[in-house]
């Protein structure tokens, strides 16, 4: 990579973006190996008050993948968010080699801070195999990425939501108005759709592309729960509880992917959200599901537990 390609760029709202910021995210996912099954990760210098869920999920998947033969690709993961993570201290990832079969490999990872688990993940890897193939088609009424404003342009006009004020390793282009937007039309039963890709070039490492998509999958998914309701956006408490992903076909995370998010159900202070990732040529390459805490403040009370 040339020095020019890694020169820092800025988005329309002045936040850093481009190859240099993407390289920082790649470095964040490149865990330090402490022992054969023990790894350590850190959070970025500019971070949310608690560790971003997509970060700990992506790092945990790296920890799992580093103990698996390179010819076996991850096909699914299932995870629970146990405690909020502290971005000011490292996270230790303890990997358990559950099984190495002829076709499938299973790993469990526990993310630990201050001696307590904050996140757990199970992941399954598979040798390439032939079999039946079909997939749901991509929606046909989707504008091209170039026809949609990027997140920096939105943020410059005060509509960047919770991602405003943070470095942007991903190029995110929201097709439908998100729940935080001043232009949100109100409750809708339609999916929330966006284009996204790594904002630069990534190495040819399939595990890295999968881990980066895992990172990205947590950015907007839970917002699809709120989008179906007419609720106040201030005082709303939201937090990921669990997360699952299935990877159906190879893809590159530095090429455009359509992310379609929809919430099929909400009850008991929780909301369920589903997401589908399509390549620009219409292939369904990944599916995700997440249940999250979604608490609406009552009159005269805040949303704290």
Automatic annotation (TrEMBL):
SUPFAM superfamilies: Thioesterase/thiol ester dehydrase-isomerase. The keyword Hydrolase applies. Residues 50-126 form the Acyl-CoA thioesterase-like N-terminal HotDog domain. Keywords: Hydrolase. InterPro entries: Acyl-CoA_hotdog, Acyl_CoA_thio, HotDog_dom_sf, TesB_ACOT8-like_N, TesB_C. The keyword Chaperone does not apply. It holds the Pfam family Acyl_CoA_thio. Residues 179-293 form the Acyl-CoA thioesterase 2 C-terminal domain. Belongs to the C/M/P thioester hydrolase family. This is Acyl-CoA thioesterase II. It comes from Pseudonocardia alni subsp. carboxydivorans.
């Amino acid at each position: 990579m040339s020095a020019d390609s890694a020169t820092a760029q800025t988005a329309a709202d002045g936040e850093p973006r481009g190859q240099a910021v993407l390289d920082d995210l790649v470095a964040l996912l490149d865990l330090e190996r402490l022992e054969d099954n023990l790894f350590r990760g850190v959070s970025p210098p500019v971070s949310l008050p608690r560790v971003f869920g997509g970060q700990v999920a992506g790092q945990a998947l790296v920890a799992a993948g580093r103990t698996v033969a390179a010819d076996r690709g991850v096909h699914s993961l299932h995870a629970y968010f146990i405690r909020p993570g502290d971005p000011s201290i490292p996270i230790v990832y303890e990997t358990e080699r559950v099984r190495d079969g002829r076709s499938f490999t299973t790993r469990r990872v526990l993310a630990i801070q201050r001696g307590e688990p904050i996140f757990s993940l199970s992941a399954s890897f598979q040798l390439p195999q032939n079999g039946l193939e079909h997939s749901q088609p991509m929606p046909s009424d989707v504008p091209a990425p170039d026809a949609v404003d990027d997140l920096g342009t939105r943020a410059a006009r005060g509509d960047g939501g919770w991602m405003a004020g943070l470095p942007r390793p991903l190029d995110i282009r929201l097709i439908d108005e998100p729940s935080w937007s001043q232009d949100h039309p109100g409750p809708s039963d339609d999916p929330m759709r966006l284009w996204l890709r790594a904002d630069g070039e990534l190495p040819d490492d399939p595990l890295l592309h999968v881990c980066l998509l895992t990172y990205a999958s947590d950015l907007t998914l839970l917002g699809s729960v709120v989008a179906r309701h007419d609720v106040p956006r201030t005082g709303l408490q939201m937090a990921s509880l669990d997360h699952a992903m299935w990877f159906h076909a190879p893809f590159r995370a530095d090429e455009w992917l359509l992310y379609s998010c929809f919430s099929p159900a909400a009850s008991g202070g929780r909301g369920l959200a589903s997401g589908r990732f399509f390549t620009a040529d219409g292939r369904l390459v990944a599916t995700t599901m997440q249940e999250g805490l979604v608490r609406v403040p009552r009159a005269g009370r805040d949303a704290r537990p």
